Amino acid sequence: MWIKRLWPTSSSGPHYSIKSVFSILVPVYVIQQARNLEVTCFKLTNLKCKLSFLVACRDTGLLPNFLRLKWEYIRNSNVARVLWNAGVLLLRLTIRDHRRNIAVLTSQIGLLVQNLRSLGERHMNVLHEHISLLQYATYCNKMTTLEKKFTDLICERNWCFVNSHRRTTPQKEAVVNLSGLPLSDMETSLLQKGLNFVPTPRSVKYLNIISDIEDSLQKVEGNVAVEFKGALANLLTEHVYRPRNNLTYRERRTLKELKARDDIVITKADKGNVTVVLAKDEYVNKVNRLLSEDSYQAIDGDPTELCRSSLLQLLTSFIEETKDDDLQKIARWLRFSNEVISPELYCLPKIHKPEVPFRPVVSSTNSVTSKLARFLSKVIQPLTGQRSSHVANSIHFRTDLKRVNLEADDIMVSYDVKDLFTSIPVEHTLQLTLNLLEHDVNLTNRTKLNPFHLIQLIKFCLTDGNYFHFQRRFFRQSKGVPMGSPLSPVFAEIFMENLEDNAFSTVNLQYQPKFFKRYVDDIFVLIKKGNEEKFLKHLNSLFRNVIIFTMEKEKGNMLPFLDVQIMRRNNSLKTTVYRKPTDSGLFLNYTSHHPKSVFFGIVNGMVKRALELCDEEFLHHELKHIERVLCQNGYPRNLVRSANLDLLRLLLAPLLLLIITTVWGKR
C-alpha cells in the first residue's frame, strides 16, 4: 500500500550510529558488516520504490521525465514518435536493470546476514528491528516523492470536463447568515450545496489506485494477477473516467474568494445540517468566553512533544511486559511520524437555542493519543451495552416500544444530561472501568494488556492528553472528557450505566418508570402522570450539582426520541420519522464529486429507515417527503422511486414466502 511519509525529510534514514544498536562490545569488523547490511538494505528499499514507480509508468503508458529524449534540430510528429519509442525502450531496459540489481542486493544481504549469525539471536533481533525501521522510513519518504511525480505525469494529459446541467432547488434554510455581513447570491448559492459538496478535482491520483490494487494482488495467483494488471492498465489508458466539472468558472472563482475572506467563519450548525456564517470577531470572542469557564485552564506553550515522549515511555514499559502488537504499532507511529499535531478546538453554533450558544468539539485527528484512544475504545466497548435498557439504534428502540401496553394514566417523558462530556467525574469512572475490567473473563481474548495497563493508558488519554489549542493559545480541559475523542463515548456509557444502576437501586418503587430506555445520555420513559417530576428530582440527587438532568414531556400526545416521533393513538403508540425544527432538508448534492454508490446508499438508507420506523398510516407521507427533498438536492426521481420498489420487494419477500407456504400447505 502506498502510504504517506512518516519520517522527517531525509535521504539517509535515522541519524544515529549502528554501534548504538548493540548493548555489548563487538569486534570492529562485525560493526562494519552490520553497517554494510544497513546501507545495502537502504539501497534495496530505494531501488524497489523506483522499480514500482517505473512499472506503474510502463503499465499506464507514461514516460518519466528523465527518459524523455530531446532533438533540437528537427521538430515534427515523426521525430516526436521516434523519441517517444526510444524513451519507452529505455524504460523497459531500466526496469530490467533495476530487477537485476535487486537480485544482486538481495543476495548480498543474505551473505551479510549469514556472516552476522555469531552475534546471537537477541542482538540479531535488535539489528533486524533497527534496519526494518530504517527501511520503513526510507519507503515512506521515497514513495511520497514518487507519488507526486506520478500524479504530475497523469495531470499532463488533457482531460475534457463538461459542465453538469442537473438542476437543483436551492434550500433557503440551508444557510443561516448570522455575521451581519452581506453575502452575494453566488456565495449563498455555493453554500447551499452543503459543506460536504466536493468540486471536481483538477487531477485524479491514479497512482494510489494502482498501488492499492497491486498490494491487494500479492496473494493472488500469478496468471490471474498479470491479467488483472493488464485490464487495469487498459482501463486507465483507454477507458478512463472523465468526470464532469460540477462548478462553472465563475463558481470556482467565487469559491476561492469565499475561502480567502478573513472576516467570517463558515461552519455547520450543531444540528440540522445547516451551514452557518458567523462574524470572525464575534466567533473568537464567544469561544474565548467559553474558555474562560472553570472547565478549562490556559497552559504555557505547546505540550505535544512532552506528551509524545511521556506516552512513548509509558508504552515502551508496557510493551516490554506484554509484547502487545497493537501497542508496538502505536509506539512505532508515535516515534517516527511527523504528522503528530496538537488537538484543535472548534465550536458548532446551536442555532435552535436563544443567543446561539456554542458546542465545543475537539478535533483529535493525528493527535498524540488519537490512535491509542481508538484502540482503547475497542477494548472496553464490550464492557457496555448488556443492560435491557440499552438502545443500540432507533430501530432497536421502536421494536422494544411496540411491546409496551400503554395505559391511560401513562405519560411519555424524555430526560437528558446537560453537558455530559464536560461533567463526567473522571476518577470515579476510572474506578468503575477498573472494576469492570477485573471481572471481564473475555479480556484476554481482546488484548494482552491487563486491567492495570489499560487504566493507566485511559488515564493518560483523559488527563495528560486532554489539551487543545485555539488561536495559537493552548488549554487543558480540567473537567470531564473531550468531545471528539473516540474514547469519550465509551467512557461516558460506562458512567451512565453505573448511574442508571444507582438510580434504580435507590428509587422509590411508587414512582419507578414502567418503561425505561437510554441511548448514552438521552432517556425515554413511560411513567405514571405526576411521578415524572419526582423521578427527575431523584436523578438529580445522584451526583448533585455535577450531573444535571433536564426533562421534556409529551406535547399534543407526541414526543420525539432520537429520530423517532412517538405518538399516542387510542392507548397505543405509533411511530414515524422525526426531523428537528432546524432540519434544512439538505443532503449530499447529486452533482458532488462522489462515487455513485454513495448516492445510492443515501437513497436506500432513507427509504429503509422510513420502512422500519414508520407505521403503515405514515409510510406513504414519509416516502413522498423523501422523494421531494432528494429531488430538491438534484437526485433523479427515477432513482428514488426504484429504491422504494427494490426495498419494498426485499422487505416483503419473507411475508410473501410465508403466505405462499401457508397456501401451499392447505392444498
From TrEMBL:
Chain ranges of the Reverse transcriptase domain: 329-604
Lineage: superkingdom: Eukaryota
Pfam families linked to this entry: HTH_animal, RVT_1
Identification of the protein by name: Reverse transcriptase domain-containing protein
InterPro entries associated with the record: HTH_animal, RT_dom
